[in-house]
Amino acid sequence: MMKGLENIFKPKSVAVIGASTQKGTIGREILHNIIVNEFNGKVFPVNPKASVIHSIKCYSTILDVPDMVDMAIIAVPREIVPMVAEQCGQKGVKGLVVISAGFKEVGGKGIELEDQLVGIVRKYEMRMIGPNCFGIVNTHPEYSLNCTFGKTRALTGRVGFISQSGALGEAIMIHARELGLGFSMVASIGNKADVSANDVLEFLKDDPDTDIILLYLENFGNPRHFTKIAREISRSKPIVAVKSGRTRQGAAAASSHTGALAELDVGVDALFDQCGVIRVSSIEELFDVGAALSNQPMPKGNKVAIVSNAGGPALLATDALVSLGMELPQYTGETKAKLKKALTGQGEVHNPLDLVAGAGGEAFKKALSVVKNDKNFDSIFTICVPPVTINQMDVANSILAGIEGCKKTVLTCFMGAGEGSAAVEYLKSRNVPVYIFPEAVAKTLSLIDGYRRWLERPRGQFKTFRVDKKQVQERIDRALKKGEKAVVSQDALDILEAYGIPTTKCAVAYAEKEAVTAAEKIGYPVVLKINTPQILHKTEFGGVVVDLRTAKEVRDSFQGLRKKIPAIKKGEKFSVVVQEMVTGGIETVIGMTTDPSFGPLIMFGLGGIYVEILKDVTFRINPLTDNNVDEMMKSLKSYPLLTGFRGSEPVEMDTLKESLLRLSQLVSDFDQISEIDINPFIACSAKGKSKAVDARFILRES
User: Around Cβ 589, how many Cβ atoms within 10 Å?
Assistant: First the structure.
C-alpha cells in the first residue's frame, strides 16, 4: 500500500492538468504556488487552450509531455476527470492529486464518477489523493513543493498535518502561520477514495523530518488498521487529533444497557485512548497542542509553576489547571528564599507567583531565573498583562533571558497584548508558544500530560484462557433455531460458565414443586425470575422476586409470576429461574456493544438497575489487554468503592479483572453476538464469592 506515495509527496516532476492563464482560478493558483515556492523539480502545465502559462510551455494533454511525470495534479471539471486519469495511467504517472470536487460527497452521479476513477487508478497501479481536496505540501528544501490553491505559504517545520476537509485548508494554513507553527508535510485527503489517513500516517511514521502528526478527521475508513498504526507511531511521535461527528446511531436502536450507554462517540474516545492519540475538541486546541509539542520539551510530570504580573489571570489559570488534574506545589526551601531576596518588596511567596503591581521585564527575569532550577516543577507558565507603563518587548526579552538554559516546558500567556504584537511574535520566533487566554494553556498542558502518562503505561498483554467454545455455540444455535434474538436466563449464565466467568447457582423450574426442590438444593435465600427471551429487562417488567426464604414464599412467587406471562406470549410453556441470592458486594456491570465503525466495545462500570442514570461506565475497543482492564477500572468515579471506602472491605479484584479478560475472549470468538449485558456482576471482598447474577446476549441478525 505504501508504493506510490513517494511519487506524490517527493516527486521530481509535476504536471498541473487544468492549469489556467486566468488569475484566481484553482488551476492557475496551484501552478503559481508551485513556482513561487521554488519547487525543486520539473513543472509541466497542461491545458489544450494555451501554449504558455506563467512563462512556462504548456501541453495539450499529459500524453504530449516529453519527459516522465511522477505526479499529476488534476483540477478540471469532474466529468472529464476519469478521462484525464486514464491518460495519466497511459503516460506512466504513478501519483495523482485530484483537486476537482463533485464526486461521492454530493451523491448521485458523483458516486458513479468516483467509482470509475478508482477503477482507473487500480488498473494502472497509481496512488491517488482526493478527489475533493485542497492539495499537498512538502516543505523540505529538497522538494519545496506546494500543490495547494491557498494564498498562505506554509512555514518549514517538523509537523505533519493530515486533513479530511479541503474547505479548512486555507484557514488552517493561516492559523498555523500566525502561531509560528511549521510543517514538514501537509496532506488534504478529501474523499479518501484511494489514499487514506492510515496510508499517510504510515508514510509520516518513517519520515525523518516529521516529529509530530496533527489530524483532522470526519470519519474512519478502517479504524482497526488505524489502531495498529497509531499505537506504534505514538510511542515515538505524538499524534494529536480532532474528530468531528458521531459514531453511534443513538440509544433508541440499542437493546441492552451497554448499547444505550454508548450513544455518543465513545468508540472514538476508546480508540484514541488505547492508541495514545491526544484527542482535542477543536481546531484551535489542535494547534495549541501542536505548537507546544513542536517548540518545547515534553513535561516530565504534571507539576506547574505560574509566574504572573496580574492576580486575576493567575487565579483563572490556577482554577483551570487544578480542575484538569494538574498540580501547583508551593515554593519551598531554597527557591522560596531566593525568590524573596530577588523580588524586593514581594512579601510572601506563593504559587501562583503574583509579581508586584506594575512589575516589568526585570521582575520576570529574576523570578524565572530562580523557578527554572526548582526540580519540584515540570512546567513553567508565565502570564503577562501588559499595562501602558510596561514595554512589551522588554518583558519578552526578560522572559527569554530568565528561562535561558531551561529544560522545562515553558508556555506563555500575553493577555491584551494587541493584534500583531511584536513581543508576541518575537517569543514565538524563539520557540516559546504564546496564548491569548490562560485556560488554553491549562488545557494544553493537561492534554500533553495525558499523553505522557500513556507513554509511561506498561503495554499490557493479551491473555488466552481454556474455554468450552462448543457449549457456547450450542446455546447460540439453539436460540437461532427457535427464531429467538436473545439468549437469556440459564442459557446465558451457561455461556458465561463455559468461559470461566463465575455465576450464581441456579436451575430452571416448570412447576411449583420443581421450584421448591431447586430452592432447597441451592439454599435459601433465593431469587425467582421469569425465564423467557422475550423479556429483556425483567426488573422493569416485575419479573423478579428476591429474598425468598421459605417453600411457601417460593410457591406464592411462582404463582404470581405465572400470572404475568400471558400478556407477553400466549402458548409459551411457563418457567422460572431459581437462583441463589448474592448479597454484600458491589454491583457492577460488564457488557459489550457493537459499534458500526469500531466493532465490539467492552464496557465496565457501576451496575444495578440505575446504571443508565448514573452512567459511571467506561469503554474500550476489543480485544482487551490486562492493562486496558486496569485503566477501565481506575477511570471510574466509583473506583474507590471497589478498593475500599471509609472502612469498607476492598473487593476481590483478580476475579473481576479476569472476568473482563474472559469476556473479551468470548467476544473475539463469537461474532454472532452483537450485544452483551452482565448486570449485575456482584464483586465481593471474599475470594470465590464474586459472581454474575444475570446476563443476556443479543444475537446478530443474519
Answer: 24
Domain final residue pick, 210, 234, 253: 210
Contact 310, 354 (CB under 8 A): yes
What range does the domain containing 516 cover?
A: 469-579
Beta strands in 244-298 (DSSP E): 278-280
Question: If you search the block for the grid coordinates 465503525, which residue do you land on?
Answer: 597
474 and 598, same domain (yes or no): no
Q: Could you give the CA distance from residue 543 to residue 531 in angstroms, rounded to a whole number?
A: 9
3-state secondary structure of 519: helix
Each residue's pLDDT tens digit, 412-438 = 999 877 667 899 999 999 999 999 999
**Using an 8 Å Cβ cutoff, are 364 and 398 in contact?**
yes
| pLDDT value, residue 35 | 95
> Based on the domain organization, do 428 and 321 belong to the same domain?
yes
Three cell numbers written together for 412: 506563555
Residue 238 lies in a domain: no
In a domain, 217, yes or no: no
Full-model pTM: 0.85
Reported residue count of the chain is 702
State the Cα–Cα distance between residues 548 and 530, nearest whole angstrom: 15
Helix (H, G, I), strand (E, B) or coil at 474: helix
DSSP string of 578-641?
A: EEEPP-SSEEEEEEEEEETTTEEEEEEEE-STTHHHH--EEEEESSPPHHHHHHHHHTSTTHHH
Q: Check: CB of residue 402 under 8 Å from CB of residue 365.
A: yes
Tell me whether residue 135 is in a domain. yes
Is the backbone of residue 171 left (phi > 0), alpha (psi -120 to 50) or beta? Answer: alpha
Helices (H) and strands (E) in the chain, counts: 25, 30
Q: Looking at residue 345, what DSSP letter applies?
A: T
Task: Decide if 120 is inside a domain.
Answer: yes
Alpha helices in 305-437 (DSSP H): 311-323, 333-342, 361-371, 392-402, 422-429
Q: Are 129 and 187 in contact (CB under 8 A)?
A: yes
**Which tens digits make up the pLDDT trace of 524-557?**
999 998 887 666 667 667 788 989 999 999 999 9
Amino acid at 216: Y
The pLDDT assigned to 37 comes to: 93
Kind plus residue range of the DSSP H or E element containing 232: helix 223-233
Split into its structural domains, the chain has a count of 4
